[in-house]
Amino acid sequence: MADLSYVRTEMLAERAPPATSVGFVGWARANLFSGPFNSILTIISLLFIFMVLKGLLPWVFSPTWSATSLAECREILHEMGREGHFSGACWGVIRERWVQLFFGFYPTEHYWRPIVVFILLFVALAPVLFAERVPKKLIWFSAVYPFLMIWMLWGGAIWSPLAAMAGFVIAYYVYKAVSVAASEVLGLIASVAAAIIWWLFLMGPVVSGLSSILPIGLEAVNSRNFGGFLLSITIGVIAIGFSLPIGIVLALGRQSDLPLVKYICVGFIEFIRGVPLITLLFVASTLLNIFLPPGTNFDIILRVIIMATLFSAAYMAETIRGGLAALPKGQYEGADSLGLNYWQSQRLIIMPQALKISIPGIVGNFIGLFKDTVLVSIIGLLDPLGLSTAIRADAAWNGIVWELYGFIALIFFIFCFGMSRYSMYLERKLKTSH
Amino acid sequence: MKKTVFFGALTVAGLAAGVAAAGTLDDVKARGKLNCGVTTGLVGFAAPDANGEWDGFDASVCRAVAAAVLGDPQAVEFVPTTGKTRFTALASGEIDMLARNTTWTFSRDVDLKFEFVGVNYYDGQGFMVPKDLGVSSAKELDGATVCIQTGTTTELNLADFFRANNISYEPVPIETNAEAQQQYLAGACDVYTTDASGLAATRASFEDPAGHVLLPEIISKEPLGPLVRHGDNEWGDVVRWTLNALISAEELGVTSANIADMAAAAGNNPEINRMMGTEGNLGEMLGLDADWAVKAVSAGGNYGELFEKNIGENTPVGLARGLNGQWTDGGLLYSPPFR
Amino acid sequence: MTTLTDPPRESFRLSMLIYDTRYRSITFQIIALIAFLTLIGWIINNTAQNLADLGKEPSFRFLSEPAGYDINQRLIDYTSQSTHLRAAFVGLLNTLLVAVMGCALATVLGVFIGVLRLSKNWVVSRIMTVYVEMFRNVPVLLWIVLIMAIMIETLPAPRAFKGDSPDATMKLFDTIALTNRGAYAPEPLFTRSLGDLHLFGQSSLNFNISLDLLVLLVVFFGGLFVSRKIKTRADKIQESTGERPTTWYLRLGVVVVPIIIVLIALGFHLGYPELKGFNFKGGTYMRNSLIALWLALSLYTAAFIAEIVRAGILAISHGQTEAAGALGLRPGRIMNLVVLPQALRIIIPPLISQYLNLTKNSSLAIAVGYMDITGTLGGITLNQTGRELETLLLLMLIYLCISLSISMVMNWYNKRVALVER
Predict the structure, then answer these.
(1) How close B208 comes to chain A (CA, Å)?
(2) Among C394, C373, C391, CA closest to C383
(3) Confidence class for position C93, pLDDT limits 50, 70, 90
(4) pLDDT of residue B14
(5) Is C380 in Cβ contact with B150 (below 8 Å)?
(6) Are C382 and B84 in contact (CB under 8 A)?
(7) Percentage of chain C lying above the pLDDT 90 cut
(8) What is the C-alpha separation between C92 and C136, in angstroms, rounded?
(9) Which chains touch B (3 or more CB pairs under 8 A)?
């Protein structure tokens, strides 16, 4: 019997998919022209992009980099036969003023200080941002960093930041001594009292004494010389740094069982969150001195930092409260069943986890605050936007509009976009670890 | 009960702090720097350059005072203030003096408790319109859109003027001169009103200055001058007489070029001698060095030189002396004698 | 009879204030209260002392003095002779106006962009991503001044409309004029108007409400109500018989016809803007500062709302869509009946907090000279009277009231839609 098999015994060779469904064409068919509606949408979008670029590119590419005044820009463009308001940008203003837009009036010979501070910022943030890749000990540097930053930016004797830090050390040892001798609660109260006494009364004489014996320090820089992005970043970083501990206290206070403590915290948080930042800045610029004892006089930048700290503390408290709420109840119960008291369980179990969950939110808070620092231009501080007004008042650049706004917007975009991307990455990372 | 005692203690502490504050002159000397409030930027009057050095007519007054008190025209911290923050900054002691084209008015002097030490620029509120609008008087502006720089007396003067002439207008309040200029040039307002000096300065920076005219109406008196806090007369005297020294120096022909010679030895003119400190002890009376006025004038020159350098006809601002000429030339500048 | 298990009655000792949990919370609260009151008292004491030194006395009398300045964009009558209180009221209404308009536009744009970001069309979704990132990462104040600058520079001045061959013409059949001073549109006028309703008589806070508008609103909502009734009836018929009567023309009719009748009865016609002298006259008018602020706030907030909407839609598990598809629902109905109701529960709370942000951000109006409450009370009034303490306290109080009312709405909604967990 002949082997009459109609079944194919060998496989057919694989054939390439049709040209219309692979490569660019296939991709375009799937993603751009999958139907009449989609095709129209694509064409409209491409047309829109083309129109925007057509308007923008000739303006951006204008050979005015070397101009020293707006009149010169106009001349250069005129010689090229380009007339009118939108014929080309005048980039000379950026060349001449970009350093000022970044550093304000910070003394030129000290530019290295803000730069070093900025680089060290990443070192200080490393334990938070890349927790698994850096040694644990680095967290001590993060704790010291705020003092280091303030000292390096403002200069002065090294003893003041050291003495301010000594306050915490004193508080710690008083707490240890008293809590062993009496009780933890008494220890806490005593340590706070000791620290306040040290900061208010003892620190001043000690610092001046040490400075006269061993004058080590950097040349002092007046805070009025801060400006541009240096000012924005300084306000943002210091306010966020100091608002973190305040925010933790407020968040815990808001969850407290003690009604009075709770209401005070809720009242503070809701008040700050209920009014626009600009009104708080008006308070900083016109009222804060009235609220303080007669004769006290902070300079305006310090007052703005104080108000920005209070402002971001309220938002920080809400972020951390979110982190606390996201913790499974079992964690609290577990801590209780181990026999830990309130503070021990907060310190060892709750806070480390809650803070970790809150990091993306905290980064978001920082982005918001950093963007909001441009509001200080309204009360006359020379942040990038305020400086742009001052630059436009220079006779050479009177009449400039877009170049400065565009440049400032671009820098803000780079900073904020970078941070928001990082926070998204962090969020994903945190999600998978659960 | 307990609370009152506690607050009592705080009050005492507060009072002690208040009493401890010394006079402004001593403060400035101790600090080694003069804190001077200026605008955040107005062409010709005060604006920072690329190196952060403040320059301009108002800034020069600050430098002259710093030179007179501290001997160094660079020993000034310029504090940019807005229309809103300037008075609080001065009242709270954040700045020692304010030289920010501020109009001397009754309520500021009496109610807000400031002391205007003199006038460094006689100004008035004017109007600027594009030439092709064909307007020759402010009274023809019925229904016009008017750009106003806020934070000054400008909006009140404007409201009064239009109400008095019974014509309507639409105000566009704007914070800074740069933005007002932008709106005006784009035709978003028909008229731009602010102090005539500001108008001239703004016009000078246009691509086509000849295409715009200043209307003849000056609707207000705006004596602009430096001011200090009420109640510290020694300090007020220092600022007042520094300004007068600048004005007198011009009247007496003392310039930054010849002042070194004149101050070297007593000359024939007794008033110059008294001012230069080569005769009498005017400096001592003020609590300053004998050559305080020499330093003040050397800082940037006499009033006329400052005017020419910052806002005069050869600068982009291009203002004529007009009312701000010496009384001997038919202007209003009239310094009391140095005697 | 006494039992032995009774705890021994302890006499109260001072240390129990700290060690005994029964008293400890009270101790802490009293400490907190004293600290808090001390702080408040300290601030008040300092303020009183400082004001005394400055020779100022806190008083709100300035509110009843003439303001002396003019306001361009206003919803109620105001002249430079009106009081500062009246000026503040004008400002407050302006704040609310831009906030309400901004929230509406931001929601529409945000939902639109959020949905388009999920589009399968690569170019469209990329454009929307760029939009969202661009607006989210640049300060809103910068956007406000930028959009204001763009409007001033690109739109024609009223002068350009003049002459026989003008450089610019009015849009939409000569009804709307877009200038760099603002937009002029026709206004509704009534020849047989019912007049106005005067509220609050002679006080500084008096205002008028057009009776015509009230009547129209009543008629409109009445029509909607009847239309709903018709729909429920149609639903009932469908349930019992399986046949759905065609009702759309009836439902449209009960809303539209009465309104048309009322409009004719009132003698409705449009008042067109006309170029007279320096400016357009007649018609309704929106200043460019208002438009710029409105657009900037809406565009900025829309970027955030788009992200909220996108997250809300993505949070609905894909199984829901598939299950709905398996039931035979069409894509549009899946969105309406299955995905959106669930997504809304996630979207609404953050959406309302964006509304809150937008309202607070509207205080940046001073950057473009829009006279909101910050521009009047916290701006020119503060400058002219020098009463920082009083004006700023009042200003913060007003914003606080607005914010708290929005929060209250949010809490009410959250309670209403909260999942009842089993």
Answers:
(1) 11
(2) C391
(3) very high
(4) 39
(5) yes
(6) yes
(7) 29
(8) 27
(9) A, C
Contact B17 A289 (CB under 8 A): no
Domain boundary residue, one of B220, B247, B281? B220
Average pLDDT score over chain B:
85
CATH assignment of the domain containing C402: 1.10.3720.10
Q: Is residue B18 very low, low, confident or very high in pLDDT (cuts 50, 70, 90)?
A: very low
A186 contacts on C by Cβ (under 8 Å)? 18
Those of residues 13-42 in B touching chain C at CB distance below 8 A are 14-15, 18
Q: Helix H segments across C316-385?
A: 318-326, 331-333, 340-361, 373-375, 382-385
Residue C190 in 3-state DSSP? strand
Chain B CB contacts of C158 below 8 Å = 187
- Looking at chain B from residue 209 to 248, which residues have their Cβ under 8 Å from any Cβ of chain C? 230
Query: Residue C165's CB: how many other CB atoms inside 10 A?
Result: 4
Inform me whether the C-beta atom of residue B30 falls under 8 Å from chain A C-beta atoms: no
Structure tokens, C249: 């023309």
pLDDT tens, position by position, B75-118: 998 988 887 788 888 888 888 999 988 889 888 888 888 899 99
Please state, for a pLDDT cut of 90, what percent of chain A lies above it.
24
A432 falls in which pLDDT band (50, 70, 90)? Answer: low
Q: What's the structural domain count of chain C?
A: 1
Name which of A101, A285, A397, A404 to mutate to probe chain B: the one with the most chain B Cβ atoms within 10 A of its Cβ: A285
Tell if the pTM clears 0.90, that is, is over it: no
Residue B57 sits in the same domain as residue B189: no
Residue B129 has pLDDT above 90, yes or no: yes
Q: Tell me what the mean pLDDT of segment B291-306 comes to.
A: 91
Subunits touching C (CB < 8 Å, at least 3 pairs)?
A, B
Contacts of C31 in chain B (CB under 8 A): none
- The pLDDT tens digits for A283-342 are 988 888 888 887 777 778 888 999 999 999 999 999 999 888 888 888 889 988 998 888
Are C28 and A261 within 8 A, CB to CB? yes
Compute the count of residue pairs across chains A and C with CB atoms less than 8 Å apart. 153
Give residue C351's domain range: 62-154+288-417
Question: Residue B321: which pLDDT band, with cuts at 50, 70 and 90?
Answer: confident
At C32 the three-state DSSP class reads helix
Identify the three-state secondary structure at position B169: strand
What ipTM was predicted for this assembly?
A: 0.86
The conformation of residue A397, written as its DSSP 8-state character, comes to T
Asked if the Cβ–Cβ distance from A413 to C145 is below 8 Å, we say no
| Domain of residue B149, residue span | 125-220
The encoded tokens of residue C314 equal 């993505």
Give the domain-ending residue among B220, B249, B282. B220
List B residues 44-73 in contact with A (Cβ-Cβ < 8 A): 44, 47-52
What CATH number labels A66-74+82-106+226-434?
Answer: 1.10.3720.10
3-state secondary structure B9-70: HHHHHHHHHHHHCCCHHHHHHHHCCEEEEEECCECCCEEECCCCCEECHHHHHHHHHHHHHH
